[in-house]
Amino acid sequence: MEMDKLSVVTSFLHNIVVYNIPLLYGTAGEILVEKSGSLNLGVEGIMAVGAIFGYICGCYANSLLVGIAVAFLAGALCGLLFSVLTVTLQANQNITGLTLTTFGLGVYFFVGNGLKASGWPVMGNFSNIMAGFSNVAIPGLSKIPLLGHGLFNHNVLVYLGIAIAVAMWWYLNKTTPGLRLRAVGENPAAADSVGINVTWTKYLHICIGCGIMGIGGYYMGLNMSGSFNSNCWINGYGWIAVALVIFANWNPAMAILGTFVFGFFNTLRVSGSSLAAAFPSVLGFLGDIPTQLYQALPFIITAIVLVVTSIRSRKSSGLPAALGINYFREER
Amino acid sequence: MTEEYAIQLSGITKAFGSVVANKNIDLNVRQGEILALLGENGSGKTTLMNMLSGIYQPDSGTIRVNGKEVSIHSPEDAKRLGIGMVHQHFKLVDVFSAADNVWMGREKAGFRLKRNRYAEMEAIAKKFGFDIDPRKKVCNMAVSEKQTLEIIKVLSYGAKIIILDEPTAVLTVQEIQKLFTVLRKMKDEGHSIIIITHKLGEVMEISDRVAILRKGEYITTVNTAETDEQALTEWMVGRKVDLNIDRPAMEKTKPLLELRDVCIRSDEGTTAIDGVSFYIRGGEILGVAGIAGCGQKELCEAIAGLRPIEKGQMIHKGDNIVGLPPRVILEKGISMSFIPEDRLGMGLAPSLSITDNMLLKNYADAKGPFVDRKQGRADAQQVIRELEVVTPSTETPVRRLSGGNVQKVLLGREIKAGPNVLVTAYPVRGLDIHSSYAIYDILNRQKKDGVGILFVGEDLDVMMALCDKILVLCHGKVMGVVHAHKTTKEELGLMMTGSLDLTNKYEDKPAGIAKDSLFGDGQQKVEG
């Protein structure tokens, strides 16, 4: 009985990680984009585009690596589109981002439905993908009781996501190109005046950031075992990622924490009933909460997070000062 | 053999749409000289310099640097050519440290940020003779520090030709002297310096030669030693101008507005104004001098009722006005106009027409739910006529007017309300001589009508000529009130930096409290 309770907690922890890592990809990608001073509201659409192309190409090539690469490229292409529109053609960033969401979801269903009619690649048939996406235990750490399996026995994309976030933190804070990127996001005129190529910096980081979002989308597809139905795989996670950027205060390391805090509530929907069964005296109430409330929970939490973080004092905020403002050198 | 000229511009033309900013300009800068570039607003000084710094490209004409013809497509190109510009609005990243602001533009900086970049920056600063804390963030710096940082930045990238766009506008007298020392030293080390300014006194003091632009055209270049302020003004304006500012002597009335021990908080919650007392009489101009950001903005806003007062009292004609809503204060005849640094941020809605901006103030006077556009247009026409605003029509968006005209519209609207106390902050900020004198005239006319004027200014020469008395603020505290015709620039400068405190100069007369104060009545009213 005691073992059973432990395993419920362990699987709860495991689920928090497994189901919410796409948020980390979306958030980290968006942080990189926003640090360049561009507000991209197209995360949802970009993740969808990355997901559908990554999944299909990955399956056809029967290679997880190809899937990741294609998802990245598809996302980066969306980023390129966003860059051309907002950086070169100076289009409004909010509108462009929203359009990109609509566009991305359109592409997703267009390609997905089209393929479903002719022959959908079922994930289970591709041994390399299945093997690639299976859990890899970290030696030693995964043996820790209670936490080991929950935190240190995951598929490679989980590790990759964490690695990307940590690397991004290092890049932003400890490298010269990172410093220049932040300068562009804070004050593009200042960056320009010291000879930093603002346009190139923006293009590069928007594309890479969107590519990272694409991988997150691909992960969601794999997590759904590639079953294509009327719901999009991304299912609003792109929007939550946009909010998590604010929660994380534009800090990729904080994004990891944010993902898990958020994931905790998000995962109650899946694990709530088993937790209630395992600890009836303490967590019994979880079983009485209607499903609809669980489904609404991520978005309620998002709203609360936005309210709380907006109270934070402006001085300590990581908000790039020029976020959302297009830069035009000759503007007077 | 070195070239005689560091920079040769010939036939430079630049147009923005139908507006020609620079027309066929020829300008030469010698090696190792300080050239002052003089001209009124809109004469194209900054545009011309921005073509050297790579912000704009000329439509036609050639640029030679050290004798070689070049094309400068970006600030990066300018940097490579050894041209550095210190812009009027500093181009610094607020949240970065001093060192990072320099580091971000450094060539061959390496991929990883070096831990020793702070020490390295300090060494570079020392080499050029500056003292700066490399870890201090720009947002915590005073204006003069920011400017020093900009100069260090430009020098550290190896600039030999340095352009300064109105560098003295934000500095105190002492800081200006310090800057000039730096400039002379840079000149001695062989740098060529171009300094853009309006202030003739500074031109005469610092420059070797003066180049003059008027309405986008090149007029002439003269040796500073062979000219005088009157001649320069005539070239600049194109006709004779009387450089004296009037200070009509007026019969003074009882105090109109009295402040006593007033404390006001800033947006950040720190104390912006700390126990300030002063009074304004009708028919006098009280100047407020102080380094930028010493509580001037908070003081103006508090008087207009836009900002709560932490402590203290404000009496207008014996009535307490603390805590009254802005509209009531306005109806009592207290008018406030504040020209912020970007010159459009406060008081006017840039994309609305002059008429609509007039309506913003008196829309509530109209009967019924609709705005009285006819009245607004009449008001606009009156302001345009009386203050000689140059505009295509009353329906032109304010944003399209030149700086001077925008400020005339703002001031005109405030005067239109017929105030008895006029609070005006930086009304001539960034204006050329001609527009500035037009504004001084407007203020003097108000003074003659018995209005009490609080004039928050930055140019001490002007304040000493225009104001009757000058109140000096330093970090929100009053350093004293002096008679404008009895004080000196040096004295004011010392007070502005807080090294001289004249508040207790006369023991029998507490500073800032009128002998014939109406405070007694006011206090009874407050208490009763």
Quaternary structure state of the chains depicted: heterodimer
Largest interface by Cβ-Cβ < 8 Å: A-B, 26 and 31 residues
CATH-defined fold name of the largest domain in chain B: Rossmann fold
Mean pLDDT of chain B: 85
> What share of the residues of chain A lie within helices?
over 70%
Radius of gyration of chain B: 25 Å
Which runs of chain B of at least 5 residues are low in confidence (pLDDT < 50)? 522-528
Written account of the structure:
The complex is a heterodimer of chains A (332) and B (528). Chain A has 332 residues and is mainly α. Chain A has 14 helices and two strands; from the N terminus they run αααααβαβαααααααα. A two-stranded antiparallel ribbon of chain A has the order 1-2. With 528 residues, chain B is of the alpha/beta class. Chain B folds into three domains: 2-237, Rossmann fold; 244-335 and 419-528, Rossmann fold; 349-417, no CATH class. Chain B has 17 helices and 20 strands. In chain B, the strands form four sheets. Chain B has a six-stranded mixed sheet with strand order 6-7-8-3-9-10, with helices on both faces. A six-stranded mixed sheet of chain B has the order 16-17-18-13-19-20, sandwiched between helices. In chain B, helix 14 (433-448) links the parallel strand 17 and strand 18. In chain B, helix 11 (354-362) packs across helix 12 (373-386), helix 12 packs across helix 13 (403-416) and helix 13 (403-416) runs parallel beside helix 14. Classes of the chains: A mainly alpha (332), B alpha/beta (528).
